[in-house]
Each structure stands twice: as structure tokens, then as C-alpha cells.
């Protein structure tokens, strides 16, 4: 054990001596997630502001004065319709435009549905808030007009409304910030991978490239003790990066004005502690896998190529789970990455974490850690590794 600790201390000392790499890694961990959250909050706030102050260019307003008056009462700012409205909407200069049919008044007088055209490009994300508000206002005016038509004919408006739908949203404040939930869980999971990568590459492929591995293997320490020490150092540094990343989220979500931007979301000390507990298997597993992949590279560049598949898998699995839109099976908690992402989402949604699920999430990662360390130690026990094979 003393030899393992000595190896770990050696790796950490070498890492902290490279202050530029260390500071860049920690600064990226501390700032990347919060900066991305700030951009998301700014987007949500700007979309909300655009929806509150809906600017709606209307063509043929003189044909439907009652409709225009209703829109203005509801807070919409009516603007003249430019001649090139469709081109400006395609270019993103306008969000939405309304064109009243010239026969609107005659259609209304005949008791027929009066035609209006709502022009927009829903593929533009920033325009969706204005589009949704414009559609909502037109539906509200249609309901109001339909009710008035029925009252004129002596029919109670409730006849056309056989259902009285009462909506009950069971989502907790944590569950309402779905996009923020995904980002926090995603970045927390990814930090466990990226945190130990520089140290793992330097401790394996870097030593082979510098030809400093042979003196290390010539010490009384066994190959397994050397590998365990390197793993301990990489896991410690990965834990530091994960802690810095989560601290950045904690500070951002503690001081950000979440209710004003429509995100009733909480990420306090309790959620921070639960995150750390859930991510412990990844903090242990990813350094072991990184060491195994790094030991297979003769240079750092070659080792980085070997890591591309791991990065792809870790980055794509949470995205796949997000878009599947179905309830995850209970056994998924035992699958590395998927299980941690599932538990992170449960923690952020305010759900209770079963002790059995937490224990199950440790089983496969612990086994994979043992296998990976054994594989690296076996590789270092072979003299061929010193010959560059």
C-alpha cells in the first residue's frame, strides 16, 4: 500500500507541476457548464420577453378591425405588413406575420369561417415563443367569436363545450426545468470522463513517449502496485474536477434569477451531495478505462485516438436516453453511464434514491475497474511494452 501511495503521489506532483495544464483543466471544469447555463437562461429570458411584447405585422387590418382591436387589448403591438414579409421571415428578420383575407368581412357576415393566414418559420428556435403566442391569441379570438355567434342565436356557449378539462400538473419545481435538468446531469457525468484524461494520458502514453516508464518498472514496486498508484492519482484528480464542476453549477444556480426566466429549479447542497454519491462509480471506473486505453498507445497522440470511442459513447448515451421518451427499465441502473445518468435525473427531479439502486450502480463499475487494472498490470508485466509494442 505504501508503494501504491508513493506512485500516486508522484503522479499528482507531476500533474500539479504542470500548472498551465492543471489550471486550464480546472478553469474549464468550473466555467464551461455555468457559461452554457448562462446562455440557456439568456435564451429563455429573451424568448419570454419577445413573447410578452409580441410585435405582429398585420396585412389587411382594415378588413378585420374587431380582430385587430382584440389583439391590441391582449398586448400585441400591431405593425404594418412589409411587402417582403415572407422573405424577411425566411431570413429571420421577422418571427411571424398575419394576413387577413380581403373577403374576411363578407365571410363573417355570411356566418362562414373567416380566413386569415399566419406566416412563420417554425424551424427557427428563437421565433417559437412569438409563434406560439400568436397562435394562442387567434385561438382565443376564435373561441370568443364562436361563443358570441351562439349567444346571438339563442344557444348557450357551454353547449359546444361538453368537457370541462381541469389540468393538474404534478411536476415538482425541479422537474419543470427539463432542459436544465439534462444539462446539469450531462455535464456532471461528462466531467468524470474529462477530468482524469490529461493525467491518465500523461501517466501511460506520456511516460512511454518520454521513456520514463522503464525506470519506474525497475523499482521494487510490482506492476499492479504501479498501476494501482496511477489509478489512485487519476481518480483523485478526476474527483477534484467533478467537485469543481458541480461547485460551479451550485454557485450558478444559487445566484441566477431562475423564477424570472421561468425556471423554477433548485440545485442546493442536498442535490450537490447526491450528485457526488452517484458519480463515485464513474470517478472510479473512468480513470481505470483511461489508463487501459492510454497504455495501448505508444504516444499521446495515438492514445488520444484510442479515447475517441470512449468519449463518443459517454457523450451519446445520455442523448439517446433523452430522445427515447420512454420509461427506463429498472435494470438500466446497473449499466455504467446509463445508470448514473438515470440516477442523476432522479436526484434532480427530487425523487428518492433507493439504497438498492445506488448499490446496484456500483456492481458493474467495480468489476470493470478490477478487470481494467488487471489488464494494464499484465501489460506492464510484459517486457514487450518497453520495446514499444
What do you see in this structure?
By secondary structure, the protein is mainly alpha-helical. The chain has 2 domains: 2-44 and 174-387, no CATH class; 53-160, abc type-2 transporter like domain (abc type-2 transporter like fold, 3-Layer(aba) Sandwich), CATH 3.40.1710.10. Helix content is 67%, strand content 5%. It contains 15 helices and 4 strands. It has helices at 2-17, 19-52, 65-73, 85-91, 104-109, 128-152, 173-176, 178-194, 197-210, 213-217, 223-255, 269-295, 300-324, 338-348, 355-381, and strands spanning 55-59, 77-80, 96-100, 116-120. Strands 2-1-3-4 form a 4-stranded mixed beta sheet, with helices on both faces. Helix 3 links the parallel strand 1 and strand 2 (77-80). Helix 2 (19-52) runs parallel beside helix 6 (128-152), helix 8 crosses helix 14 (338-348) and helix 9 (197-210) packs antiparallel against helix 13 (300-324). The chain is elongated. The mean pLDDT is 79.
